[in-house]
Design a protein that fits this description.
This protein is mainly α and 148 residues long. It has one domain.
């Protein structure tokens, strides 16, 4: 009985192979070629999305670096100015008042800068992820279209 199954299986495989004719082969090959072309096009778009994402990230980091550089430069200049004012103070109370005001201003400016930096990072992240998110959505749509 085992020999009969092998013959049956072999016969079915041969019959399935025998039904392939030049027209059905051509049709299958064309579908395959279309699929390969679609995959290549999708991959090209995916690579472009990665490049766009990297470009957006790079611009965001550049903007953040410029912002922090300006902030640190102005903070340094302000600290030098306050130091000169403290050195020229007429009394210890005046020096203390100058330092207290500087400390208060510094805390406010640092908190403001922290918020600005956080906003820049959020904006950079959104812009960096947008091309990838769009590409992922296209992939999901393609997968959905091939579902039975």
């Amino acid at each position: 009985m085992a020999a009969a199954n092998k013959t049956e299986t072999g016969g079915n495989a041969f019959d399935a192979f025998a039904t392939i004719n030049p027209e059905s082969f051509k049709e299958g090959y064309e579908k395959f070629a279309e699929g390969v072309s679609a995959i290549a096009d999708f991959n090209k778009g995916a690579l472009q999305a990665v490049m766009d994402s990297a470009g957006a990230y790079s611009k965001g980091v550049e903007k953040l670096t410029a912002e922090n550089t300006d902030f640190f430069k102005s903070s340094y200049e302000r600290a030098v100015s306050v130091g000169k004012s403290v050195a020229g103070a007429q009394s210890p109370q005046e020096a203390f008042d100058i330092q207290s005001e500087f400390a208060r201003e510094s805390v406010e400016k640092n908190l403001g800068q922290a918020n600005k930096v956080a906003d820049l990072w959020v904006d950079t992240t959104k812009k960096s992820m947008a091309p990838l998110t769009e590409r992922y959505s296209e992939l999901v749509e393609k997968i959905q279209s091939y579902r039975p």
